[in-house]
Amino acid sequence: MTNDSVRFRGDCRTIQSAVLAAARKLAPRRGRRVARGLRGWAGARVAVWAVLLLFLLGLGGRARGQGSLVSWGRSVFPADLSGGYVAIGAGNWHCLAVKADGSVVGWGNNRSCCCDPPTFNGGLVAVSGGSAHSVALRDDSSIVAWGATYYGQCSVPVPNIGFVAVSAGSDHSLALRSDGSIAAWGLNDCGQCSVPAPNADFIAISSGFRHSLGLKTDGSIVAWGHNGAGQCNVPVPNSSFVSVTAGGWHSLGLKSDGSIVAWGANDFGQLNVPGPNAGFVAVAAGWGSSYGLKSDGSVVAWGENDDRGQCNVPEPNSGFAAIAAGSAHCIGMKSNGSVVTWGDNEDFQCNGPSPNVDFVAVDTNGDNGHVLALKSDGSICAWGVDESGRCSVPEPNAEFVGIAAGENFSVGLKSNGTIVTWGNISPLPSPYDTGFLRVAAGLGHALGIKADGSLVAWGSNGFGQCTLPYPNTGFIAAAGGDSHTLALKSDGSVSGWGNNVYGQCDVPSPNTGFVAIAAGGSHSLGLKENGSVVVWGRNDNGESNPPPGPNADFVAIAAGSRHNLAIRSDGTLVVWGTNAGSAERTPWENSGFIAIAASFSRSLAIREPPPPTPTPAGVTAAQWMLY
User: Fold this and answer.
1) Do the Cβ atoms of 342 and 321 come closer than 8 Å?
2) How many of the other CB atoms lie within 10 Å of CB of 188?
């Protein structure tokens, strides 16, 4: 046995002790399971390293089970959209859907928390979204509104009762009362809230960017508000309309004969209804695009269709029962209760994990970064804007055991120790891409830990973040910030290098007893074997303050640009620091978390599924299934 092998085996004993100490901190069920496995593998180099990597340094879900993904912050991805929905709505950059149980789900751009459900999330029957606010109609005919309210767009007029429909414009809201009158509130700079007299006999409403439409019982349309492109000039004959929709600077009306009439801006061809102009049953309008739902369940889209693909209806283009349009995206609900989205995906409004189950690790990076998530079967799911191909996982998409997300690239670690990269980063040349046990990424650089304890770094090196320290040995984990690097040694010490303008590389004393690390934008975190968290570096937003509450009993950490996440042994989350979009808040249901990740303005976590309810005494499993 060589000296390197002897030294490595000694490192494994140190690693084993650290992992055992952390495992004992977990809830008894989890801790005993991990501890038993470690005792059985004592002295086995690969096994101990694997348990360390999967449990303590970012892939804990693999050792402790798997679960579903949760996101919050400036942009959030959708929950499982495979079924169970009864109504949909679209904001400028976010989506809304009502479940059969009357609760609402929101995803996409989450400015002012417009995607976060109302406090009492139930009893909803219809929903609509604006620029940064959302409105919903309850089954008791009242309205609830949430999100931005700087123009009063969430200040529902009183009496808040007797409503039958709602529609959110960019910064104003409309609601139709059962007596045929319209209530309007919010921004009124163009008169979009000034309903023309007589305010009566309306049966449908729609809010656009700065204009409003109302459909009368006699089939005529009334339009008011901004008219810079003629979007309020209803064509004649103004009769026989059965539905209306207001877009950015144009309007659509559906006639009783199934044809569509369009007026207003036509700079993208959004008024040019494709032939045959017949058989339509619903309409929707985006900023520069238009949509029509046909009686056969297909969707026709026309107008603006740039690289966001807002007019590229996904296949199969059939079975649609409802449509709604955002600024540059569209959401469709199928007759089976599933939801399909397409178009602009900068804020995850058009894709996410589906089905949202069996995830064991998650990572993200950058301001408008993408998300990587590892499944228990070894495959990787990637979503977000596919800039530089960062979401295009190479085939075969199998046998992955590790992931790392840079700003415009992705890294995957295979079970055979090889590294695969995609996106805007140079791949490691063969044979130097083998023998790895761990991967990590900063904003523009990637990191890999080899089986011999050495570290490999490549990519952006403007601040020396890829210039490795000497001696390059004994490393068990690495983490990348915007432009600095941290590395954890088997003796429990942490090394830092790269950009150090805020002291993010200056590890506080005593530099011992660390078992995990995380690198933020310009700050750093370390988890000690006693369960405490140490934070250092930039502190403009409280990101380098100690975690709130008792600084103890933590088992996992993650760092965003200016906020941090940490999991306690009971599965609850602690979040601190600050960032846009409320990435620093705690999810509504704070329990069962097993893995975490964070970026500039986004927080992600994996939550274990709840344990099955035990079968009552005296009742068979088959009988219990019928309850």
Assistant:
1) no
2) 16
Q: What does each C-alpha distance from 312 to 112, 163, 340 come to in angstroms?
A: 29, 35, 12
pTM of the entire structure?
Answer: 0.83
In angstroms, rounded to a whole number, what is the distance separating the alpha carbons of residues 248 and 237?
23
Q: Which residues contact 471 (CB under 8 A, 6 or more apart)?
A: none
Report the distance separating Cα 488 and Cα 465, nearest Å: 15
- In whole angstroms, what separates CA 156 from the centre of its chain? 29
Those residues whose C-beta lies under 8 Å from the C-beta of residue 508, and which sit 6 or more positions away, are: 534, 536
* Top mean-pLDDT range of 4-8, 71-75, 411-415: 411-415
Q: Which amino acid is at 46?
A: V
Residue position matching structure tokens 């059962």: 178
Q: Tell me the pairing of strands 602-607 and 104-109.
A: unpaired
| Residue 64, H or E segment | helix 60-64
CA distance 306 to 370: 20
d(CA 306, CA 151): 31
Q: Are 523 and 598 contacting, i.e. CB atoms less than 8 angstroms apart? A: no
Which tokens is 321 given? 């029962």
Instruction: Give dist(CA 317, CA 513) in Å, integer.
Output: 57
Asked whether 210 and 225 are in contact (CB, 8 A), the reply is yes
| Dihedral Cα 569, 554, 561, 460, nearest 10 deg | -100
- For tokens 């414009």, what's the residue? 169
Q: Which amino acid is at 362?
A: V
| Nearest residue to 89 (alpha-carbon basis) of 114, 64, 113 | 114
Select from 355, 403, 356 the least CA-distant residue to 378. Answer: 403
Centre a 10 Å sphere on the Cβ of residue 297 and count the other Cβ atoms it contains.
16
DSSP letter assigned to residue 434? -
Greatest alpha-carbon pair distance for the chain in Å reads: 94
| Mean local confidence (pLDDT), 50-79 | 62
Phi, psi angle pair for 580, to nearest 5°: -70, 145
Query: In the 8-state DSSP scheme, what is residue 122?
Result: -
Q: How many CA atoms lie within 13 A of 352 on its CB side?
A: 27
- 328, 334 Cβ separation under 8 angstroms: no
| Identity at 159, one-letter amino acid code | P
pLDDT of 282 > 60? The answer is: yes
The number of beta carbons lying within 10 Å of the beta carbon of residue 346 is 17
Helix (H, G, I), strand (E, B) or coil at 96: strand
Using one digit for the tens of pLDDT, what is the confidence trace for 116-161?
Answer: 988 889 999 999 999 999 999 999 999 999 999 999 999 999 999 9
Q: How far apart are CA 251 and CA 232, in angstroms?
A: 8
